[in-house]
Design brief:
Rossmann fold, alpha/beta, five-stranded parallel β-sheet, about 575 residues, single chain, Aminopeptidase
């Protein structure tokens, strides 16, 4: 795991945070949290985020979360971080009678459910809960695994039930202190002298690791996360140089150092199966570079697993730019792996936004190092993620085919596009929530919704919800656009949310969507549609969106209106079908 230094994070607090987007956080703990708050604020500078933090009074978790008039709810945070110290938990357990210890975990989880229910009744923010490092208390030794009234059994049960709770609760994320502790070791996580003298339960070395993981959760919920891994080949995906050594001599498989590359490929395959886009960027002759994917019996990754394959003698930076143009995602959502330090530094200099881990010299250490970085944090997962590789392969095919047409209209007409338009429902709720969390560029107001909030919108009598799936003769795009309209007056409906996947830009989809918005407004008896553009660091591409679609500017800056009665339907090459 990359070294993070608490003193460096503390020095960041003196730096200029102006211009960074604000995220409001409330921190609650039954142990001192001052240094955790300092570290989190300091880490925010590294992420170019201004964390505005309300640190509640010590040991006030219950009072703050159960009282609707508390400081927490008046603060209206985006995130609430709850920290119950493992040491405090252990003290409570030890004070229980023998007959009460078997139900300790169940009682504790039931109490947390009450607290979280109160949070959900009073705010729509996300909860980040720090789970518990396991404790070697030595009371029963290894036999603690055989009895349900040992502290080891109960703390493991709590961590398991927290996972089950997170599955059921759409706005609960777990910061996995248990996993971090097992990875780093108790000696790094906990300082006995610091605890005895100041009651601090995390060591100064561990605090930066904790806030890094908390920040990973926050950024993913805010729509900033990695979507694509780009792989070099020689000495990165296999040992040796394919052009010199030949397919029969590259190192891969179960023997020697080849095992390290094989296990790395298995890991990449797991990323691909959960929806990460896998691409190749290699200085090689393409025919030679493809050969192991097509013919080597020990290769885990095959050509069908690769969304975009770039093997030529252009610079790595130029090829990554070409990959980005095909995928139409931000450089800041890409990870590039290359064993060569020169190539890594060149790409970092040419494309500063991309994540380029400095791989260890020994390939045997690649996988453990990459796993420690937590490069692929997410806040939601849908069944559609599993189809992403195929979808981007189809996009690449469309990009090639487009060049054969004389003009844009002929190309669009040839695609035979069909869009299914429907209101939000139980099936689409996870996908809609995920798209609101993922979309940054084509997003007029950048409002993020949890699954529970999406479900509430679908039942709101003053809201009109629209989701759009798209397909053409080359394949399925899946869910690509979301619109939420909210009644403002009897005559006016406002566009609360309008976002779209950048994969379908230049398909006429924005005009098609506006046609359906106007139709919905007409059906609801509205005379005017109002839209707002809220600028962010990433959505300047839609700064003129409403103007380009015929909306008129209102007096208030970045507010637009459209007269439904005067609207002329756009001609598009997309056929609408109702769900």
């Amino acid at each position: 795991m990359d070294t993070l230094d608490f003193s460096a994070l503390k020095k960041n607090l003196k730096k200029d945070f102006s211009g960074f987007p604000e995220v409001k956080i409330c921190v609650l703990g039954d142990a001192p949290t001052q240094l955790l708050v300092q570290a989190l604020r300091g880490f925010g500078y590294n992420q170019k985020i201004s964390y505005t933090i309300l640190e509640a009074d010590f040991d006030q978790i219950d009072r703050q979360l159960m009282d609707p008039a508390s400081d927490v709810y008046a603060f209206n945070p985006d995130f609430i971080i709850v920290y119950n110290a493992q040491q405090k938990l252990q003290q409570k357990f030890y004070k229980k009678k023998r007959t009460e210890k078997e139900s300790f975990a169940s009682d504790f989880i039931n109490h947390l459910e009450e607290l979280f229910s109160s949070v959900n009744s009073n705010t729509s923010c996300r909860i980040i809960y720090l789970n518990f490092a396991e404790s070697l208390d030595g009371v029963y030794g290894n036999y603690a695994n055989n009895i349900d009234f040992s502290f080891l059994y109960q703390i493991r049960k709590i961590n398991l039930e927290l996972m089950n709770m997170a599955i059921k609760t759409g706005n609960l994320s777990i910061c996995d202190i248990s996993l971090l502790s097992s990875f780093l070791g108790k000696q790094v996580v906990f300082s006995p002298s610091l605890y005895i003298n100041s009651n601090l339960t995390f060591s100064l070395d561990f605090l930066p690791v904790v806030v890094k993981n908390i920040s990973d959760i926050i950024l993913s919920a805010k729509g900033k996360f990695n979507k694509c891994i780009i792989l070099d080949l020689d000495n990165t995906l296999w040992g040796g140089i394919i052009g010199d050594d030949g397919i029969e001599n590259i190192q891969i498989g179960d023997l020697g150092i080849g095992k390290a590359f094989t296990e790395l490929q298995y890991w990449v395959m797991q990323l691909k199966e959960r929806g990460i886009i896998v691409c190749v960027c290699s200085k090689n002759n393409e025919e030679i570079a493809r050969e192991p994917f097509e013919k080597h019996p020990d290769m885990v990754l095959r050509m069908e697993d690769i969304s975009v394959f770039m093997a030529n003698w252009e610079t790595k930076a130029d090829n990554i730019r070409a990959i980005q143009a095909i995928l139409n995602i931000g450089f800041d959502s890409m990870v590039f792996l290359d064993d060569n330090p020169f190539e890594r530094e060149f790409v970092k200099k040419e494309i500063p936004e991309i994540t380029v881990p400095d791989l260890p010299e020994d390939p045997a250490e690649y996988l453990l190092y990459l796993q420690s970085l937590n490069l692929f944090e997410i806040s939601a997962l849908s069944a559609e993620d599993e189809k992403r590789t195929q979808q981007y392969q189809e996009d690449a095919k469309r990009t090639v085919i487009k060049k054969s047409f004389a003009n844009e209209e002929e190309f669009l007409s040839s695609l035979e596009m069909i869009s299914e338009v429907s209101a939000f429902n139980k099936f689409s709720t996870p996908r809609v929530a995920q798209l609101t969390q993922r979309s940054n560029q084509f997003n007029l107001r950048t409002i993020r919704y949890s699954e529970s909030e999406v479900a509430s919108l679908s039942q709101d009598p003053n809201a009109i919800t629209l989701s759009y799936n798209l397909q053409d003769k080359y394949g399925q795009y899946g869910l690509i656009s979301v619109v939420v309209l909210k009644k403002k007056t009897d005559r006016i409906v406002a566009i609360d949310t309008w976002l779209m996947s950048c994969r379908v830009l230049k398909r006429g989809m924005e005009k098609f969507v506006l046609n359906t918005i106007v139709a919905a407004a007409q059906k609801g008896g509205f005379e005017w549609i109002e839209g707002e553009y809220i600028p962010t660091a990433k959505n300047d591409m839609v700064a003129d969106h409403y103007k380009s679609l015929g909306f008129e500017a209102m007096e208030k800056e970045n507010h637009w209106q459209l007269n439904v009665g005067n609207y002329s339907k756009f001609e598009v090459y997309i056929q609408e079908v109702k769900a």
